Amino acid sequence: MDLVVVSNRVARAKANEPMTGGLAAALLPVVERSGAIWVGSSGRVRDNVSKDSFAEIESLGAGALALLDLPAAHYGGYYEGFANSALWPALHSRTDLISVSQDNYQCYREVNAFMARALMRFNKPSAAFWIQDYHFLTLGAEMRELGVRNPLGFFLHTPWPARRVIAGVPHHRDLVESMLAYDLIGFQTEDDCENFATYLRAELGLEVEGGSVSSRFGTSRIAVFPIGIDVDGFAAQAQRAASHPDVSRLRKSLHGERLAIGVDRVDYSKGLVNRIGAFDRLFEIQPSLKRSVSLLQIATPSRGGIEAYSNLQDELSRQVTEVNGRHGEVDWTPIRYLSKGFSQTVLAGFYRAAQVGVVTPLHDGMNLVAKEYVAAQNPIDPGVLVLSKFAGAANELDTALLVNPHDIDGMARTIATALSMPSTERRMRWEAMMAKLRAGTIHSWFAGFIEALETAHTGMGPSLLP
Ligand code: F6P
């Protein structure tokens, strides 16, 4: 089978480039090894694009990276418009932030159709296509329209919300009906998969039996594939990173002070305001912790053209200034707030230098920062993970200190507990989490999905086309 992986954002194999995290960083090591072709957006747009206008095709490990310029006329409506102002808030249960227009939906459909035409270049009898994430819900249906009968898999990296929430997007039926063109639809958690099955039954009147559902496209399978990380690779990277100048500077700056770390894109789903609020509260209820712990919050700017994101960025800057003003001293800053990205290597070193990892999203498909923080720890003296129970990762990392990110007082108390946890308990919790990470790595996730895709497709004959 010749695998073609498709995602909006791709990652390049350059160890020192800043990473925005998420799926691109996670897929890089495994796609490199697999020999797959990875197709994605070049990040550039053009007026006169043609399906053959791949900006670049370069080698990537045993395979290739093919980057496509997207049509200028539709890009804004697709990316900032429908994908990130309608779908993203809906998928993260923020119906108050859903903003839709027919024009944006049209742009989303156009870009999906354009990508489908471009993918024809890689279509051959042995090809299987694995499409990633909410940017391409309708890509599979467009490919079927073009006559593609090959295996088509889809994996959603975000949560899939309750049926009434996704129904807040006026085009929900069209979107979900199109998704059934995929042979296999994968989710991060049982809850997401269950929500999707409930939607199919209640909104589309379909029968879902043992993870199979029939539609005009044939039979699709729906299943759960929690994404993992390259545990041993990340652990080794964290160990090596100790000598990186940025990591040494961070360690030197601590003067015996302990460090908590948060690493996130600036996104309302990440619970950043609540997290900073919890540190504010922590210094209020335990003033003895002043000067003995600080939070390093790396807050990478994201989707700045969307009002909800630029507002959040402003709000966070104000909040951090206030908290630092309230609790800080001439020679001590409680919140070290950095609005930029760092390379995977430097992040790995930062995680290892921090005694507490704070990963407290309001909603998250998986959250790989949680897994990376755990993998980066020194086995002899591991740090403590404070993890939101609303991150997909909480299903596996259940020996982290689980918190409700809406409960600011509770989070503050839990951070204090993390800081005073004896080393035997830290090690016990950490070892249990490492065992879970080893049981489900990025490699087993990748192989497991591909195997399930082959099986799911076998049941689909030439009657596949509408
Ligand atoms: O699943 C969500 C996701 O696709 C992640 O891979 C990543 O963290 C984020 O969204 C990337 O967003 P963007 O490409 O808009 O920066």
From TrEMBL:
Keywords: Glycosyltransferase, Transferase. One of its GO terms (biological process) is trehalose biosynthetic process. It holds the Pfam family Glyco_transf_20. GO terms for molecular function: alpha,alpha-trehalose-phosphate synthase (UDP-forming) activity. It comes from the Bacteria. Pathway: Glycan biosynthesis; trehalose biosynthesis. It is an enzyme of class 2 (transferase). InterPro entries: Glyco_trans_20. It catalyses: D-glucose 6-phosphate + UDP-alpha-D-glucose = alpha,alpha-trehalose 6-phosphate + UDP + H(+). Its EC number is 2.4.1.15. Homotetramer. This is Trehalose-6-phosphate synthase. It comes from Afipia massiliensis. The lineage of its organism: Bacteria, Pseudomonadati, Pseudomonadota, Alphaproteobacteria, Hyphomicrobiales.
